[in-house]
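Lecture 7 notes: from sequence to structure.
We start with the chain below.
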Amino acid sequence: MVEDNNNPLFYECIELNYEVDDQKDLESYPPFIFDIFDHDDDIFDSTPDFLCRAIVEPEDCGISLLEQSQFERCKEHQQEHCQLCAHLNEEIPSEPKWWPCYFTPGTPQCGEILVSFSVTDLDYNYPCTPNEVDLMSRVETNELTCNMLILGLRNLQSPGILPVKKAFIKFNVKSLVPPNGPAVKNVQTQPTAPGCNPTLNTTMKFNVPLPLLELYCPRLQCSVYDYIYKGWNQPLIGNFVLPVGELMHALK
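Predicted structure tokens for the same chain:
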């Protein structure tokens, strides 16, 4: 669970009992359903809000079947084709995949979830438990400098009865790193230019560790706010996303 983060990146292992009719027929397996909620700590409303749902068919899961013949020798028992450890190598999850999420069937996609599966009747365990999660040690990153030139905003629509006064942008840099990652600070532009078409002409620069693999490339969540009554009221105007990870690979 990640707070104040529209692009959460975390690593958690979950083990569930799963009943099937025909173990050899993946199409007969019931689908996996992931309901995604937003955690609330509000005083008057602490009920989690439903965001979206992902439905993954078992035949599409990222499962890799490995035969014992691929392993030359058991390191623990020093035996070739060791039957004592054969079950440990039969089903190992391959790299995770991104699956689309929808609020209701037939509506536009409103998110993605990254999941890796292992479906087996054997006593297989992931290499970690939820209490031993350390995503930074599992995903290789590189410290990079992000430079941005923010020219302006156009055609802003006021969320209230008053026109847009002085809009500014908050860049959620924390959305680029996992919860156990290095401490980073969010940055924002200054509310100086008035009107619904402000020309900001501002530069932003910050350092952040970014994953080297494109699979884990993050996106920068950005929010536009209005600055009313000397900052006493800052209503949200809208959101947009910058694909920082994709841009990093494209610039290479």
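Points to note: The domain at 140-251 is CATH 2.60.40.150 (Immunoglobulin-like). The mean pLDDT is 78.
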